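HUMAN:
Sorry, I am quite new to this. Are you able to go through these amino acid letters and fold codes? The numbers rather puzzle me.
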Amino acid sequence: MIPANADVTPSRPGVIAILLAALPMFGQIFHYMKDLMPLWALSKAFPILSLPLALVVFRYPMAPMSRQVLLSFLWLTIVPSFAGIFYFNQDFFTGLAAQVKLLPMLYFFSFLGLLLMLQPTLREMQMGFLLCGLITFASLIVLWAVIPQAWYNEHYPVGGGPLFSADHRGNRIRMPMFFGIIAIFYYYRCFLRERRLGALLAVVAGVFLTMELVKTRAMLVGILGVIVLNSFFATRGFLRYLISGIALAAVVGLLAFGNLGTLIGDSAATGFDMRFETILKASDFLGISAMRWLFGVGTISPTSSDSLSAFFNHFFFLADIAWLGVIFEFGLIGALLFLFYEIRGLLLYQTVIQRNIDSHFLGSLRDYLLYVLLISNLYPPTLSPGETAVILSVFAYVWLWLQQHGSDWWKETE
């Protein structure tokens, strides 16, 4: 069963232990950590290794979004692979290798299968996610304290992302923050609803560590954007304008004086010059062809002897140009599929979950989908589709139990 947070059923250590072991893989924590080669390789293979768990899903009624996720995945992998044949002179299977990054979309089915096998309570899922968030921040502090300066890489290839780097923003630890950000959103919801000072201090600490140690500008923009929006919509009267005003003032202050200041402008620190050149070359390649704009032109596979940078004689990375990069590779149709992938999750939460369960935890997962949309013009959703897939599978899991037990069975009194 999945009782609500108010349920007194003791949490099962075995279930929480399995979630703690599985969540980092499903959450793509090690997906770009080449410094940790064994875990990186396991993360790359995990979408296939975990796929047998999806067989469990067939024992239950069809979950919402199942068709959408499957059809979107097939379109986004097959169509660009065919396009690459015509535009970059590579065979279909080589082009298909370029879409390995989309395999984590299948976590919707495999993680849903794991949940249906374990049948965790809402509290157990919440503990799993929040403990992963706590471990994330604890790891940041430990690494900051023990890693010597010599380990911070000042010179690395353009497009590279070592775990420890040093640039114009200072020393950075490129820690994946999926669970840490969800924890921030969870505790901010606790503060807004219950006026718990400890929850607000946890949020401040989380944002401070992200700002001072991770220093990823898009990440901070997304976190603060969601905080401002929640401040406005979760409060009423004078308190609404007071809290949202303070949150907005913090954002403006960071833009003016903090690391976010390098996000705006055309200096080399912003990377604007390189991105602008990429935009020009990508737009010129798409030209005025409706076919190219609608269906995309694919990309050159990493397994190919060529590369986009060599093809365009420029440091050409599609992730640098966000939605234009998505349109370049997948077309306007593909971009809409990615957009609906996120929006459908928001609608599922709003129309099904929120009507029956008032949960800070599920609300924080919804906040993360909003966060993905807010930063999508800086950090495209193609890079970590597994994060969204995990959240959607949690919503689908709750939906399945609501169908089986009825909404009266859920009584939330957090």
In short: The radius of gyration is 22 Å. The chain has 16 helices and two strands.
